[in-house]
Amino acid sequence: MTPVRLTRPRRALDIVVSLLLLTLLSPVLLFLAVLVRATSGGPVLFRQRRMGEGAREFTLYKFRTMRQGAAGPGLTAGSDARVTGTGRLLRRFGLDELPQFFNVLRGDMTLVGPRPEGIALALRYPPECQWVFRHRPGLTGPCQLRSRTDALLLDGRTDPERYYLEVLVPRRVAMDAEVLARLTPATVLLFVVRTPWYLVSAAWDGSRRSADRLGGDAEAGTGGGRS
Questions:
Q1: Among 31, 33, 30, residue whose Cα is nearest residue 43
Q2: CA–CA separation, 119 and 142 (whole Å)
Q3: What is the C-alpha separation between 14 and 124, in angstroms, rounded?
Q4: Least enclosed by CB within 10 Å: which of 55, 170, 192, 215?
Q5: Residue 143: which residues within 8 A CB-CB, separation 6 or more?
Q6: Is 116 in contact with 52 (CB distance < 8 Å)?
Q7: Phi/psi at 63 (nearest 5 deg)?
Q8: pLDDT in tens, the chain (227 residues)
């Protein structure tokens, strides 16, 4: 598959932003590494082969959020029992993704692009969606920002992988096409700035909805009136 190479300005932006944020966030990265190790034991990082630019495989790095050795499907639903308590906190704020700045620095990924897909699922993409693997996957992007919502859509599905491939993948690829058609260094920076704000806002809204539901349950239990 013929890759779509990054322009020099975008690659330069990847390097500068990754180096800057890895330097600034180094105390946070160290703290999170200690937290993962102390609360769940085992390795701090999760490594997985993903589909990269031009359908070339690479190793993606994340902070480990699941129990060590936990087996299960390649997709993570919103209520997946394999996720640890610390892992849920990291996922809520997108902190488990921070090691991917090393992937961006190495050139495996870019700051903004399609979501990096696991190999097994990538090979099962509908033919009309496989063009997305010509592009370098991104640390953030429209699909990454919908990951939490999409994970909730998988809850209760009898065949979550089929639903993902037949319903969510075409939807995601369409969003990627729209963004890739107008992606410039300026829009990349806009995504980078907006992503932390989006993650914090989404986590806050989720906590508030959970609190509202708990309040409603309490009232029902007295005869009155998510993770």
A1: 33
A2: 21
A3: 30
A4: 215
A5: 114, 115, 172, 175, 176
A6: yes
A7: -70, 135
A8: 899 999 999 999 999 999 999 999 999 999 999 999 998 888 999 999 999 999 999 999 999 988 776 655 566 655 567 778 888 888 888 899 999 999 999 999 999 999 999 999 999 999 999 999 999 999 999 888 877 777 777 777 888 889 899 999 999 999 999 999 999 999 999 988 888 887 777 655 554 544 444 344 433 333 333 22
